[in-house]
Amino acid sequence: MNAALTLDMTVAYGDVDRDQLLLLPGVFKFLQEAAIKHADQFDAGTRAMVNRGESWVLNRLAATIHRYPRYEEAVRVVTWSSGIRTCKGYRDFRVFCGEELVAAASSLWLYVSLKTRSLVRIPEEIAIMFPSRSGEVFRSDLDKLKLAPPAAGSARSFPVSVRYSDVDGNGHVNNTAYLDYLQTALVKSGLPARPRNVEIQFLKEIPPESEMVAVSLDRREDAVAFRIGRGEEAFALGVCRL
Fold first, then answer.
1. In what helix (H) or strand (E) does residue 52 lie, and over which residues does it extend?
2. How many domains does the chain have?
């Protein structure tokens, strides 16, 4: 098995916007699919969910998007594990169109019990056999990533519907849906729809029975601080640069 996985895909019509450019959540769907395919090679992905009752939950992600690919454009995603420690897994991504680097990202995943929704130590057999590649990390400081919420006095809030299709096989709202909510709120606020950089920390699951979430935005020069929540509950905090 290779330390890195390369996944070739094509931008589908259902994942582009009115300008026929890949939607923000579409970028992260590519990353998610590559991560799952790679983990499945070592029985640490969807098979672990079925056989062990355990799964990976995305905790933090930082990405730069140099260009949003167009409809029917061929995309190549390269991903690898950059380390496993106790209950944490680190993963990097590079996205190419031909030889052009169009996106780069680093992510931090937590290993959890689906029954208790609590952290569990990554099984030794997975940690030993799962190949990691040191170096070439886009963001090495994800553990230290602390994101401040939008300022209460200057933030604008936008309600966004939670749909049946947002809930995944883990029984919670999928992380890519959070990026859909963010992009929807950006457009509603009159801001550019395609951020060139996104940093996000997932704080709490959005319950699958939720009907709405509120996305709060606070413009700060070329950046926007955001919060996805409901009332006093914060489900995610982040910042995107336009």
1. none
2. 2
Other CB atoms within 10 A of residue 126 CB: 18
CB neighbour class for 132 (10 Å; exposed up to 12, middle 13-18, buried from 19): middle
Question: Among residues 85, 102, 87, 103, which one has the least CA distance to residue 139?
Answer: 103
Q: Is the pLDDT of residue 230 over 70?
A: yes
In a domain, 178, yes or no: yes
Which tens digits make up the pLDDT trace of 55-94?
A: 889 999 999 999 999 999 999 999 999 999 899 999 999 9
Strands across the sheet containing 4-10:
4-10, 74-85, 88-97, 100-113, 54-65, 197-202, 233-241, 223-230, 212-220, 156-161
The verdict on residue 192 lying in a domain is yes
Rounded to whole angstroms, how far apart are CA atoms 145 and 135?
19
100 in a domain, yes or no? yes
132 and 201 fall within a common domain: no
CATH number for the domain spanning 182: value is: 3.10.129.10
Type of residue found at 10? T
pLDDT at 40: 87
- Mean pLDDT estimate for the chain: 92
Mean pLDDT of 123-138: 82
CA–CA–CA angle 163, 54, 115 (5° rounding): 75
Range of the domain at 164: 156-241
Question: Is residue 127's pLDDT more than 90?
Answer: no
